[in-house]
Design goal:
Layout lengths: L2 H20 L16 E2 L14 E4 L8 E4 L19 E2 L6 E2 L23 E4 L2 E4 L14 E4 L2 E4 L19 E2 L6 E2 L24 E3 L5 E3 L1 H13 L14 E3 L6 E3 L4 H14 L14 H13 L9 H40 L1
Antiparallel strand pairs: 1-3, 2-3, 4-5, 6-7, 8-9, 10-11, 12-13, 14-15
Amino acid sequence: MKTIIYILIILTFNKTLLLLINCQQIEPNCFKCLKEGEECVPDGFKIGSCSNGLVCGSDPNNEFEKYSCIEPKRYGEPCVDSSVCDIGLLCSPETNQCDNIKFASIGELCSRDLDCSENIDKVSCIDGYCKSKSNKCTSDNECQGGFACIDSECIFAIQLNQSCSGSSVACDSLAFCSESTQLCSLPYSLNLNDSCTFNDDFDYQCKPNLTCSKKGNCIESLNGSSSTSGSNETNKEEKCSMKSCGIGKYCDCDSGKCLNDAYDHFEHLMSKTECIIKNRCRMVENLYSRSSCFTKHCKYIDIEIHKTNLCKNTIFTVTYRDIDQQQYQSNSIKLSISLFTVLLLLLLLSIVIIG
């Protein structure tokens, strides 16, 4: 029931947390800003260390499916997949053009089936809202925001910091029921020695550098400890590496040293998660769409983090301002063409009548 939600947490947040806390890419040994055409590793923001105005998109000419820094495709432009589209846009399977789709969860406004984030075989746009085609659910995402899927039924979910004791209750999406407090809590919020639920697959309850032990309490993580000690040893080395810099630092390719990262990325992650939970937003496919619940309520948090972007890439904040205008301009062009056609027909008709 909650497994899918935790997978989303891991894929959407932990990956981003790893990238941002260490401020480096996954594969390279150090961090550097990449120019157009240089190979990159995509991240949760589509930027992936690319320099200003670029996104990390797939290269259609590369048979090995590698990614490189490219200028993004704008609204209405042709695309091969969603990675090449501007932030807030996805590649439409119907038109093969970058479009504002997959932004709405069940119960949210839509104008077509493609606006709904869930698969079209499960959800349709009916009477202006995304609605499930079935009375049963298999995950929280098949329920309206503020509800959770329990025993194939959508039930009202417990809000953040509210009591979650008892059976057949569920916290809002992305939150979990803390054994220590019996309250619905933020992920990665438990302190040292707090009670937690051990899980071999996902470790999302304890704070960074802590892990949930088999005994059911938060203990110091060996990985976190080794990273910290490695950071001290790195100061004695000529060159740093991706794994040698501790939390709050990144390995700079140019200097070969671990440098301090001025932004508290973990605090950003917590603020972002808390905003999503409090506004009962779903983790839709197009999270950064201009029309998504996240953008309407929480976009300012991600805009804030990009003010300190090491590559000075302003595309994230610029896109949020321009995406409405992109669609407006595209629609205006279509409207102008239609209006011109009508006027031309009227002119021809008047000539015929006068003649």
